[in-house]
Amino acid sequence: MNFKPSKALTLGIELEVQLVKEEDLSLAGVAGEIFKETSSLLIQKEFLNSMVEFVSSPGNSPKEVVEELFKAVDDVIKIGKEKGFKLSASGTHPFALPEEVEITKDERYKRLLEEFQEVLRNFLIYGLHIHVGFPDANSLINAYNAFVEYSPIFLALSSSSPFFKGKNTGIYSYRSKIFEQLPRAGVPQQFDSYREFQELYQVLLNTGTIESLKDIWWDVRPRPDLGTVELRVCDAVASRSRIEGLLNLALMVGALSLKREFKPYFQQVHLQNKWKAARYGLSGEFIDRGRKVKLGKKLIEIVAEYSKTFGKLREGALLLERLTTVPTSAEVQLKVYRSTGSLKKVVEVNLLEGKD
Predict the structure, then answer these.
(1) Cα 303 to Cα 315: distance, rounded to the nearest angstrom
(2) Are 277 and 327 in contact (CB under 8 A)?
(3) Dihedral sign of CA atoms 317, 16, 294, 346 in order
(4) Which residues contact 112 (CB under 8 A, 6 or more apart)?
(5) Most CB within 10 Å of its CB: which of 26, 142, 167, 259?
(6) Residue 144: its pLDDT value, please?
(7) Which residues of the chain have pLDDT under 50?
(8) pLDDT at 125
(9) What does the alpha-carbon distance between residue 333 and residue 149 come to, in Å, rounded to a whole number?
(10) What pLDDT is attached to residue 356?
(11) Structure pTM?
(12) Are β-strands 167-168 and 163-164 bridged in parallel, bridged antiparallel, or unpaired?
């Protein structure tokens, strides 16, 4: 597998978005209408006919990447105003039912559906993926280990899926629990070397288990074909400032991985940390190499370590510190539902409407 180097710490983002009907905010199978109106490379088809994916080009700063992404989002919002649909961003749609949703006609999706059956039919889930660039294989795999260790913090900060099929699941990120049902998803193992990752990849490839890297759906995925580490653990979120915060955190973790080694740690600890993030968000507990700390506090510690080491990104540090005091989308959704009893009102708080 050839490694294609990237400029260190370049950033990219992919945001999966729900298409919902204007009148009742149920899912709308209108993706085809969007692609009749635009040929933008930043807008791509996805698994469901009621979703699209926005994909940025590589950028040098979180703000640059977010601005480009949301220009494309705003273009589709304008199409929606003409066609009678809106955009919503959260890890799940609160009341959609799998049997009512149409899957995009695509040979790859057809093959996956044949393999995974009812598990895949329940995949009414939407994520946010972040790419961070690295110049060589060794720095990439060390960064990968860092992102695996800290991925629960990203999940907690983005948690936005407490409802599924009309029910309060009691879990801040139920999307992450659905995704884990796939055999090559969830918290992956860490690696002692890039070669070890290559050996695993070849086993999966040679046995016909996968056709390419795209068939590996780990929470964190090495992308030697792009020269990036791809963080896939996050729920989709509608807030531009929260997305910018997540990108700033990814930049900080990536930069720290270039300064110190992240050795593999106990897999059971990573699994436990992810559960706490999915269940409780930033108030969940994080096992940090033996000690126990709140996920929100560990986030602040990462920001402080970065600031001490590099002394820059002051704006990003302040944004992340603020976001630890602002309710996550999951918390906002639960509060709205408790006060109104309306799942339609829950969707409303996740709408993308040309503003934060």
Answers:
(1) 11
(2) no
(3) positive
(4) 120
(5) 142
(6) 98
(7) none
(8) 94
(9) 28
(10) 52
(11) 0.96
(12) antiparallel
